[in-house]
């Protein structure tokens, strides 16, 4: 499949329009193509930026909110998402405490444009919404959030479109000008001094102008995790005295009440994790404009981002050996939640003694290298007559490399779950010096402010975890690694014709053709193991010293240490005390929770998976995962037409956008497994599966603004929208999860306890998915009662004609030995129908400049959004479930002050509870995993020393807000993410 632009194939209609048009790609580029009546405002300071934003909103062609450059510079906005959360209807999602992605009116199906056109972001190569952690906010001059569709705005967002606007050289003052800043920030938990630098310089001459900006910053972010570490591994094991088919159901009376009609809600593991994210970001823009003649302007832009990050974690985890022992909970004060569909009563508890067969000193590192470059070329014509136009060409590329690497340092000896090593002299504990053979009683408690995991004070005559000789790396692996790359090419021609006719003001029209190619190659690291007593070798991913790869004793059957077979690496135990210098560190930092001090493999040693894995098990190679590797080519051809009407009483536009989408999807036929002790999807690539699809969308839209009074505007809009598909949801394959069978299941099914059995699966791609499609209606009343004041109210309704949702079903899946023994749950994406989103927005902004003296410097802003949604899914008790990640209520409140060179702003951002995922634990009805309400408080302050220098400080998350999650019931908490307060001090200069 080709990965660069193929010849555009335009429809006859598009070809006809192409011959006749030139355009301004900024018809969508600056929401406003605003009329001459728009007041030109020089932005400097909070009050001026407020006036600029309100001016943009007032004269916009639809329902629009705007943020100007001074807004971004004057709040503690680490990322663009942090800035956008102040817009009514915007909700953000955080990554390590930083704003990463956004919802508009409760929906994440939002497209983001760069100067009015599609662009590539390396953090989200397969989607049209970028990961804003990639993009330094200092590269952007303004942002417009368009909540109603217009026919000239590139379709792609269901609930809204965000347009990032970079600064243009011809907007600079004449001659040379520039700006620079230097700042340092620190977190309340990380305590490191993190630098940031930005330099911008430009020249605006009579006929040409140039502007260049470079930004670089480094951050270390605390990001602790408490509770369950795997959202998707929830189960409801039930008492199984009849031997019914249920691999995770014990044959014991778990509750001890003398019957076998109960079930207990549990996850496979719980832990307290120290987790820090380190990021190094660099961004740059270079823009050039030349006035070729009185009628022609040439513009070109380069937008570059580069980010390296590492998410490192270490902590103590207690688990049931990932499926080996399900009767491991001793619930204190359990609550009966009702009856499951299988007739068992479900019990949950918030105070639990975990009789843990395995306790692990867990270390893990996830790394990313991301880079993207977007080039834009424009030739604009503005004649003396009624016609103007622009030709625009965009080419972009992006790439991302992601790695994951894990080291599990056993503290237990393995005997509690039957895991043994065998060097040929007979089976023994896999970690001979570890604690055991009995399970370790770990007390898990969710009833306090933060979840706690308490360990017994004394085990086998010593403080638990205090002896380094108890620790050994028993298991290590590197999985979910991938390389992605994407290319994007766009050619568009747009035109505008102004009329001197009554109500008809102008017509705009254009054609566009684009091609986006995305390739993903996923892999694991495999180490070769030779037969210790004969010929042959196998490649292994899960390098677990309790697993055997060969039938070394000749007894037949599945290799097993207990059966007498030699295990992998049995002659080289990796005790912590014998590891290379610098590999092991002690840690007692678990944020607000006091867990004690333990030994860990330093996660920094895991940043390079090949180096780490080779140091323990030499000669690792990449093992391909063909089911999760793919290539997708997406071609679109579109044409739009729009007419604008106006008189003294109203402004209106109506038109359509027609889009033809063609998809060539190349998936891989998954063949036989190429390794031992590894997921089934690590396999041979047995050829290509090619799917060719196309679909058409006709998207009409109407926007009307009535000037009820000079400062009172009533808006109404209607339109159809669609969003481009996440290409990963089209092309990904089937991923099967497996776990060691363990003694209980081995006894009931007559299999080896070391056999890796299928537990669940994920279907990551569905080439038949249709895009999200919706019909949107908005009505807004806006009262501009001063140049810096607004009171507005809006109602909206989004009727989802089709959407993508998660579904679960049962299919038979083979165990590692190729035998089908049971059905497992498969999770995947399907199209749903009939969802809705409706709600209202209230907004108030005002500068109190009418007050006397000191008080005239104050101002405020407040907004509130109510968005109610229905997904068509039901929860545990049959209750209707909303769309994922929608908060029914959200709001923002700001108090600011500006006078005599001093500026201060205090902001609060609130989100009500939101659905994180809909989960179907084993043997259980659907349940909702919810995130509790959050309120984040930020502030900023600055002082203008003179016309050229400003000193400033900012604080984000002042109250150290955290995010707690619960499973279905508010009193059934299951996890918590801890974020830190961050303070920044800096100096900004301009000339």
UniProtKB/TrEMBL annotation:
GO cellular component: cell outer membrane
Database matches in InterPro entries: Beta-barrel_TonB, Beta-barrel_TonB_sf, Plug_dom, Plug_dom_sf, TonB_rcpt_bac
Pfam families assigned to the protein according to its UniProt record, in alphabetical order: Plug, TonB_dep_Rec_b-barrel
Domain TonB-dependent receptor plug: 58-153
Signal peptide boundaries: 1-28
PANTHER family: PLUG DOMAIN-CONTAINING PROTEIN (PTHR40980), TONB-DEPENDENT RECEPTOR-LIKE BETA-BARREL DOMAIN-CONTAINING PROTEIN (PTHR40980:SF3)
Gene3D superfamilies with a match to the protein in the record: TonB-dependent receptor, beta-barrel domain, TonB-dependent receptor, plug domain
Coiled coil residues, start to end: none
Subcellular localization, as worded in the UniProt entry: Cell outer membrane
Keyword Signal: yes
Family of the protein in this entry: Belongs to the TonB-dependent receptor family.
Domain TonB-dependent receptor-like beta-barrel: 572-958
Key words of the record: Cell outer membrane, Membrane, Receptor, Signal, TonB box
Protein name: TonB-dependent receptor
């Amino acid at each position: 499949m080709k990965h660069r632009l193929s010849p555009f194939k335009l429809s006859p209609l598009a070809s006809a329009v192409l011959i006749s048009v030139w355009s301004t790609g900024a018809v969508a580029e600056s929401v406003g193509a605003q009329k001459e009546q728009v007041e030109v405002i020089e932005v400097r300071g909070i009050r001026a930026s407020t006036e600029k934003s309100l001016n943009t909103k007032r004269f916009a062609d639809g329902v629009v909110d705007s943020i100007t450059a001074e807004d971004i510079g004057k709040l503690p906005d680490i990322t663009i998402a942090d800035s956008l959360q102040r817009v009514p209807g915007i909700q953000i999602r955080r990554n390590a405490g930083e704003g990463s992605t956004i919802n508009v009116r409760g929906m994440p199906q939002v497209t983001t444009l760069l100067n009015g056109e599609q662009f590539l972001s390396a953090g989200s190569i397969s989607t049209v919404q970028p990961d804003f952690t990639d993009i330094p906010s200092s590269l952007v001059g303004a942002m417009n959030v368009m909540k109603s569709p217009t026919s000239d705005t590139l379709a792609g967002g269901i609930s809204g479109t965000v347009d990032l606007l970079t600064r243009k050289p011809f907007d600079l003052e004449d001659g040379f000008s520039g700006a620079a800043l230097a700042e340092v920030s620190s977190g309340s938990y990380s305590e490191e001094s993190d630098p940031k630098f930005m330099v911008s310089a430009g020249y605006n001459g009579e006929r040409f102008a140039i502007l260049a900006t470079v930004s670089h910053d480094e951050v270390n972010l605390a990001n602790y995790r408490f509770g369950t570490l795997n959202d998707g591994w929830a189960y409801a094991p039930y008492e199984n005295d009849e031997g019914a088919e249920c691999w995770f159901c014990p044959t014991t009376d778990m509750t001890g009440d003398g019957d076998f009609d109960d079930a207990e809600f549990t996850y496979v593991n719980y832990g307290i994790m120290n987790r820090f994210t380190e990021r190094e970001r660099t961004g740059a823009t270079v823009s050039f404009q030349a006035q070729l003649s009185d009628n022609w302007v040439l513009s070109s832009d380069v937008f570059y981002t580069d980010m390296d990050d590492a998410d490192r974690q270490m902590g103590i985890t207690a688990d049931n050996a990932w499926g080996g022992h399900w009767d491991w909970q001793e619930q204190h004060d359990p609550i009966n939640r009702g009856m499951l569909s299988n007739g068992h009563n479900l019990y949950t508890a918030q105070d639990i003694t975990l009789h843990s067969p395995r306790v692990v000193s867990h270390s893990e590192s996830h790394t990313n290298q991301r880079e993207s470059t977007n080039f834009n070329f424009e030739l604009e014509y503005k004649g003396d007559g009624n016609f103007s136009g622009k030709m625009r060409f965009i080419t972009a590329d992006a790439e991302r490399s992601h790695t994951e690497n894990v080291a599990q340092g056993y503290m237990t000896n393995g005997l509690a779950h039957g895991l043994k090593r065998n060097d040929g002299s007979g089976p023994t504990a896999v970690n001979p010096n570890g604690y055991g053979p009995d399970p370790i009683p770990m007390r898990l408690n969710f009833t306090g402010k933060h979840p706690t995991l308490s360990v017994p004070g004394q085990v086998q005559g010593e403080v638990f975890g205090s002896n380094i000789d108890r620790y050994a790396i028993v298991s290590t692996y590197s999985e979910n690694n991938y390389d992605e790359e994407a290319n994007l090419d766009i050619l568009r021609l747009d035109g505008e014709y102004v009329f001197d006719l009554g109500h008809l003001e102008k017509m705009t029209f254009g054609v566009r053709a684009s091609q986006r190619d995305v390739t993903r190659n996923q892999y694991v690291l495999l180490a070769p193991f030779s037969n210790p007593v004969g010929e042959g070798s196998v490649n292994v991913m899960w390098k677990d010293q309790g697993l055997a790869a060969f039938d070394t004793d000749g007894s037949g059957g599945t290799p097993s240490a207990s059966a007498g077979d030699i295990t992998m690496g049995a002659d080289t135990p990796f005790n912590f005390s014998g590891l290379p210098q610098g590999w092991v560190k002690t840690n007692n930092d678990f944020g607000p929770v006091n867990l004690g001090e333990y030994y860990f493999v330093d996660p920094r040693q895991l940043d390079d998976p090949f180096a780490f894995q080779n140091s323990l098990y030499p000669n690792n190679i990449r093992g391909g995962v063909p089911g999760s590797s793919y290539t997708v080519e997406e071609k679109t051809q579109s044409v739009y037409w729009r007419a604008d009407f106006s008189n003294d009483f109203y402004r209106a536009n109506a038109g359509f956008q027609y889009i033809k989408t063609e998809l060539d999807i190349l998936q891989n036929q998954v063949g036989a497994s190429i390794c031992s002790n590894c997921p089934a999807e690590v396999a041979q690539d047995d050829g290509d599966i090619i799917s060719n699809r196309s679909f058409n969308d006709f998207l009409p839209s109407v926007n009307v603004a009535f000037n009820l009074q000079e400062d009172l505007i009533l808006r109404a809009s209607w339109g159809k929208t669609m969003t481009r598909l996440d290409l990963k949801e089209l092309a990904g394959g089937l991923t099967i999860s497996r776990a060691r069978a363990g003694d209980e299941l081995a006894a009931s099914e007559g299999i080896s306890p070391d056999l890796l059995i299928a537990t669940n699966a994920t279907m990551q791609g569905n080439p038949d998915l249709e895009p999200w499609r919706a019909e949107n209606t908005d009505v807004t009343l806006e009262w501009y009662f001063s140049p810096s004041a607004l009171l507005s109210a809006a109602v909206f309704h989004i009727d989802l004609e089709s959407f993508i949702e998660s579904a679960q079903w049962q299919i038979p899946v083979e165990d590692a030995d190729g035998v089908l023994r049971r059905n497992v749950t498969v999770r995947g994406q399907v199209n749903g129908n009939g969802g809705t989103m409706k709600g209202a927005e209230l907004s108030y902004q005002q500068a109190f400049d009418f007050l006397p003296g000191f008080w005239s410097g104050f101002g405020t802003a407040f907004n509130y959004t109510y968005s109610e949604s229905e997904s068509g899914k039901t929860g545990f008790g049959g209750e209707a479930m909303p769309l994922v990640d929608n908060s029914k209520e959200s709001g923002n409140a700001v108090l600011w002050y500006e006078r005599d060179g001093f500026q201060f702003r205090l902001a609060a951002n609130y989100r009500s509870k939101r659905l994180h995922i809909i989960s179907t634990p084993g043997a259980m009805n659907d349940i909702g995993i919810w995130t509790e309400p959050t309120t984040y408080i930020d502030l900023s302050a600055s002082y203008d020393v003179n016309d050229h220098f400003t000193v400033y400080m900012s604080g984000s998350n002042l109250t150290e807000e955290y995010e707690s999650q619960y499973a279905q019931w508010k009193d059934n908490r299951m996890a918590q993410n801890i974020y830190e307060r961050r303070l920044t001090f800096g100096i900004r200069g301009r000339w």
